Amino acid sequence: MKVLVAVKRVIDYNVKVRVKPDNTGVDLANVKMAMNPFCEIAVEEAVRLKEKGVASEIVVVSIGPKASQEQIRTALALGADRGIHIETDEEVQSLEAAKLLKAVVEKEEPKLVILGKQSIDSDNNQTGQMLAALTGMGQGTFASEVVVDGEKVNVTREVDGGLMTVALNLPAVVTTDLRLNEPRYASLPNIMKAKKKPLDAMSPADLGVEIAPRLTTLKVEAPAARQAGIKVADVAELVDKLKNEAKVI
Amino acid sequence: MSILVIAEHDNSSLKQATLNVVAAAKAIGGDIDVLVAGENVGAVAEAAAKAEGVNKVLVADNAAYGHFLGENLGDLVAEVGKGYSHILTSAGTTGKDFMPRVAALLDVAQVSDIIRVESDDTFVRPIYAGNAIATVKASDSIKVITVRPTAFDPVAAEGGSASVEQLDVVKDAGLSSFVGEELAKSDRPDLASAGIVISGGRGMQNGDNFKMLEQVADLMGAAVGASRAAVDAGFVPNDMQVGQTGKIVAPQLYVAVGISGAIQHLAGMSDSKVIVAINKDEEAPIFQVADYGLVADLFEAVPQFEEELKKVL
């Protein structure tokens, strides 16, 4: 079966985020960018499905500026077979991303679509669910285990109270949580091979989707800093402070 | 304006997060209806009707909603919600699952995880794991919003007298089915709404050592949490994780034991009223946010802490 994986180019998770002095956003100039960590887990899961003989082809798609092709190439080096780049320099919000991916789903007809549960920049946690709703597919969000069984997929989900398992009819959408797997690193020969794998570029207009943001960011600020308090000498002083100064016990 | 709040519950009791979300709805202003969707939810509907500021409780009681499957809830809420100006729910795993489906079905944007209401169309939410705070204006006619419960003080659970109306809308998308669940059973308070939380990190060394924290927690009526490092190391299950990718907590007192204080963790607990850190590394970043820091070996300090607490509690 064919598996479609969506990946997003975001700030590298190790980079310290700085808000621009004019409060228009986060400073991304000359900042290291990388594949969103939850998307890496999505790619890894697809590759494992292929290694198990469940997936026959992995198509990786990314929406964003030209440079997003770096993340597509990374996914190809990890084991995806071909790439689709939807190129735009506009800000693409979750609903438009879902509409673009829906257009790709209609063309490619994958049995399974795997996405990260959220991107670490906008932290929206929406695109996978929106894609599932727009395409009429079931969804297994925040997955910690994915087992394909004939025409169904069983997804174990990380929920507030613990774990919950659902069975979804295929085709279906899965969004990944942290403990689904540990992504591998790309080997040098595979990075070289990835350069020769096919990568189609297209525009949102080619897919018939208009990019029209519904949300306007008015300002972006640094969070209020919490002041460091005091060091206490021992446990007795700590308990005394909690009882008599902070009055929380 | 009219606001629909989707209640968070477990079919038997209303979760406190619902009261926090009603508080966010009050901050927007307008008539507030609460939708209780589930199976055999009579008691939940009754509780919702008593909450302060609720105008009407709508009840969708059907097996199709019993396990809160996102496909069925999404279809239901999109239909019931289309007459409202705002649709709100808690940013718990249930709300995060179904709410984007509602937004997509209504062809509107969703504003996720708001922490403040500026006006009826402008909201404040954390981005970049809480390292930046964005003020966002929504232009769609229906605002679909998930609310970070700990950012709003709950409305009173008693005193209201809303009417209760049964809906006969049954949406079974037939796309998914419930297979099973493994829910943590605990007599301690719920992590997300506990007044006191005591959490352990990698410094705990193994899962057995968390018993030390559990003893202290039982003494204080606290919930027990953990850092991602402790969860990833397999010491404790993932539902105990506090942090950007786990639960967001804001108790009166947060005690961090053997937790270094990675950004990931701080994003989940730095709105706590009082933070205590116990760590043997005095350079640990957790001390930069702690009101009271104790540089000590936790294996000595925690038993002492328990003994001292017994004297004063």
TrEMBL record, chain A:
Cofactor(s) demanded: AMP
Quaternary structure, from the entry: Heterodimer of an alpha and a beta subunit.
Electron transfer flavoprotein alpha/beta-subunit N-terminal domain span: 23-211
Residue intervals passing through the bilayer: none
PANTHER family given in the database record: ELECTRON TRANSFER FLAVOPROTEIN BETA-SUBUNIT (PTHR21294), ELECTRON TRANSFER FLAVOPROTEIN SUBUNIT BETA (PTHR21294:SF8)
Species per Swiss-Prot/TrEMBL record: Marinobacter vinifirmus
Sequence similarity: Belongs to the ETF beta-subunit/FixA family.
Role description: The electron transfer flavoprotein serves as a specific electron acceptor for other dehydrogenases. It transfers the electrons to the main respiratory chain via ETF-ubiquinone oxidoreductase (ETF dehydrogenase).
InterPro entries according to UniProt: ETF_a/b_N (IPR014730), ETF_b (IPR012255), ETF_beta_N (IPR033948), Rossmann-like_a/b/a_fold (IPR014729)
Protein name: Electron transfer flavoprotein subunit beta
UniProt entry keywords in alphabetical sequence: Electron transport, Transport
GO MF entry, a single one: electron transfer activity
GO biological process, one term: carboxylic acid catabolic process
Gene3D superfamilies in UniProt: HUPs (3.40.50.620)
Lineage: Bacteria, Pseudomonadati, Pseudomonadota, Gammaproteobacteria, Pseudomonadales
UniProtKB/TrEMBL annotation, chain B:
UniProt key word Electron transport: yes
GO BP annotations, alphabetical order: fatty acid beta-oxidation using acyl-CoA dehydrogenase
Record note on cofactor: Binds 1 FAD per dimer.
Segments forming a coiled coil: none
Residue ranges constituting the Electron transfer flavoprotein alpha/beta-subunit N-terminal domain according to the UniProt record: 3-182
CDD domains found in the cross-reference section: ETF_alpha
GO molecular function, one term: electron transfer activity
Keywords: Electron transport, FAD, Flavoprotein, Transport
Binding site for FAD: 202, 227-228, 241-245, 258-265, 279
Entries under PANTHER family matching the protein: ELECTRON TRANSFER FLAVOPROTEIN ALPHA, ELECTRON TRANSFER FLAVOPROTEIN SUBUNIT ALPHA, MITOCHONDRIAL
Family to which this protein belongs: Belongs to the ETF alpha-subunit/FixB family.
Protein name: Electron transfer flavoprotein subunit alpha
Organism of provenance: Marinobacter vinifirmus
